[in-house]
Amino acid sequence: MKVIVYVEGPSDQKALQALLKGIIDDGRGRGIGISFSPQGGKAPILNDVPRKAAEHLKQNPGDWVFALPDLYPMAYYDGTPNEHRSFAALWRLLQDRFTSRADKIGLPADTRRRFRVHCLKHDLEALLLAAPDKLRERLRTKDALKGRWRNPVEDQNDDRPPKRIVEELFRQYRRKPDYIDTVDAVWILERASLQSTEAGCAQRFASFVRELRAVAGGGDPDPPAPMAGRQEAVAIPERADDNPDSSDSRARGPATPEGAG
Q1: What is the pLDDT of residue 236?
Q2: Who's near 28: CB < 8 A, 6+ residues apart?
């Protein structure tokens, strides 16, 4: 059995392979191959992955396919067919396109639930903020980094996503300031605790890990949150905490900036 996780780029591929090594190894021991496939950006995931997933599952109905784009950017897609301002809207966009292709090729209903949609909120670097000790180690600083980002770490926003925060930190603390995601993110996450990272990214990343762990263990993850047993049953509910810039979130006030320590 194969598990394909479609991600945006090589940094996502390499860093997630490092962080999730234990799960990948567990799956390998059970004859389950887990691979991360970079697609060259967010747009190819939005435009092409639903079709790829449906066609792959038509030929390989025992496999699992995950879509794991970044939630950021969202504003870039305003006014386009890919518009979304929350994870709920992103989920619906991908699921609708998957269902459309699945209908055309006659994909059985039970197989359709093997397409799973998740996201990195807002991008890969949120996971680095959830591993502050290893981030400080890479930055070569003992600074507590208090007040440098919002907590929970997935509560950054579309104007200042985690990657921008990490880039700023590298410019400030490293003699060689450039942050290289395919190098630095891998270094940090291969040393980070998966359990702590899950706990720090409980809104979106933890649900992806939970499902991947279940599949790697030879099990079957729960039906996707918006489903009640059938693909078309219920749309995923909109939640203010999926989008820190939503009207409900603004009514509550911004997330309180807190330190990493």
Answers
A1: 47
A2: 34
φ/ψ of 16, rounded to 5, equals -70, -35
- C-alpha 126/C-alpha 258 separation (Å) is 14
Is the CB of residue 259 less than 8 Å from the CB of residue 144?
yes
Distance CA 145, CA 54 (A): 44
Which of these, 76, 69, 59, 60, lies nearest to 36 by C-alpha position?
69
Bridge pairing between strands 149-150 and 257-258: antiparallel
Q: Phi and psi (nearest 5°) for 109? A: -60, -45
For 84: left if phi > 0, alpha if psi spans -120 to 50, otherwise beta; the answer is beta
pLDDT in tens, 89-138: 999 999 999 999 999 999 999 999 999 999 999 899 999 999 999 999 99
For the record, the structure tokens of 171 come out as: 């410019």
3-state secondary structure of 71: coil
Angle between helices 132-139 and 162-173 (to 10 degrees): 40
How many CB atoms neighbour CB 147 within 10 A?
11
| pTM of the predicted protein model | 0.85
